[in-house]
Design goal:
Elements lengths: L4 H8 L1 E7 L5 H10 L12 H7 L3 E6 L2 H4 L9 E4 L16 H17 L7 E6 L11 H4 L18 E3 L6 H32 L7 E4 L5 E2 L4 E3 L7 H4 E2 L1 E4 L8 E8 L3 H8 L12 H4 L10 E4 L5 E4 L3 E5 L6 E4 L15 H20 L10 H5 L4
Helix pairs in contact: 5-7
Length: about 375
């Protein structure tokens, strides 16, 4: 049986286990992805597309997401292909009919047209899929695969759940959402597999840098939420996948637990393209190439609702609508089930102070002179 595409990419590429977003809002987040700045900043830094175009690359954006297609920075691409699959009220009968599969087919067709150009130009293709935030239209056979004999069948609709759960919620409600979500994940895996197959069979993987990244997570019952509800800065929302595959048939099977953010991607791509102008952010290629790099000692996260969170290698403090901060041990408490601020009050207080200090630095546009964190805030209580 052929390996799953995500596993295949992980085995051929490099996995960043602790990749974080700095804001769940998609439009804000794309300032990070394209400019290399914190997602809460608005500035006139050049975008990756601008820099690539200036160095002779053809830049193309393909997306089924209106917020991305109409983003103010999207106009920096030479070409924007806005894919509109139309309205769907029912799940697809076949993989090829799904919104995601049609989008990936559009991307592969673009690559095929570009590769047959007699004067092929080096290119930067940015493909954004709504993914799990779009219609859950994977065929029912995919979402039913994980159903045990005593489980109820998952719902057959295409709408993404979006609700706060009552204290006495029906567990079958969450189970059905999990099964439906798994169907979409399998669909995404199949679509990625088609792209990887094309790159390999066409030989384009020999000169292609491939990055796969998520733009936010989705709650499946954690912390009383189901779906994209009010953007709480918990692990299930802010922790995203990030894999990078260098050109060739490598089998590096490598990974890093360094704290990285999506605003590191423009600098990484620019370094690989050997652009003379470098975006903001950290170039991740040295990590992939085996150099020792500890990553950031902190990542500040914000939300449009005013929530704050600060993540270090050892802790995650969340400052939400609760009167007191919430504190979790990292990386042990991955799903943040054990809140311990009452037992580690000094840690919670110091991290809260550090988070607010970074907010002030963000407003002042200065990220170079942050106060140094105490060792126990970075390395844990055993440091």
């Amino acid at each position: 049986m052929r390996d799953a595409a995500f596993d295949r990419l992980a085995s051929e590429g490099f996995v960043f286990d602790q990749a974080l977003i700095e804001q769940p809002d998609l439009q804000s987040l794309y300032r990070s992805l394209w400019q290399g700045v914190h997602s809460a900043c608005e500035n006139d830094a050049p975008t990756l597309a601008q820099l690539a175009t200036a160095h002779g690359l053809q830049t193309t954006l393909i997306t089924d997401e209106t917020l991305v297609a109409e983003h103010p920075l999207a106009s920096d691409f030479d070409e924007c292909v806005r894919f509109d699959p139309g309205d769907a009220s029912e799940v697809a009968e076949a993989i090829e009919q799904t919104q995601m599969a049609q989008l990936f087919a559009e991307a592969i067709d673009w690559l095929e047209r570009q590769s047959t150009d007699s004067e092929e130009t080096p290119s930067l293709l940015w493909l954004h899929s709504q993914g799990m935030a779009g219609l859950w239209d994977a065929p029912l056979e995919l979402r039913n695969r994980l159903v045990d004999g005593d489980d109820p069948l998952p719902p057959s609709g295409v709408e993404v759940p979006n609700e706060r759960l009552a204290d006495d919620f029906d567990p079958d409600l969450v189970l059905g959402a999990v099964h439906s979500y798994s169907g979409q994940v399998q669909l995404a895996d199949l679509c990625l597999g088609a792209l990887l197959d094309y790159l390999h069979e066409s030989g384009r993987d020999r000169d292609t840098l491939l990055l796969l990244v998520g733009t936010r997570g989705l709650s499946l019952g954690e912390h009383g939420r189901l779906g994209q509800v009010d953007d709480p800065l918990y692990e299930e929302v802010v922790h995203v996948p990030l894999m990078i595959k260098l050109p060739g048939d490598g089998d590096c099977q490598s990974r890093s637990s360094a704290l990285v953010t999506l605003r590191d991607l423009p600098a990484t791509v620019a370094a690989w393209l050997d652009l003379s102008d470098k975006p903001h952010g950290i170039n991740l290629l040295p990590i992939i190439e085996g150099e020792q790099f500890a990553g950031r000692d902190r990542v500040l996260m914000t939300s449009l609702s005013g929530e704050l969170a600060l993540r270090t290698p050892a802790w995650h403090v969340r400052l939400g609508d609760e009167q007191e901060p919430q504190l979790y041990v990292k990386p042990d408490d991955r799903w943040e089930a054990n809140e311990i601020a009452s037992r580690c009050g000094d840690i919670a207080s110091d991290l809260t102070t550090a988070a607010r200090a970074q907010v002030e630095a963000l407003r002042a546009g200065d990220f170079e002179h942050l106060p140094e964190l105490e060792a126990e805030l970075v390395e844990g209580l055993g440091s």
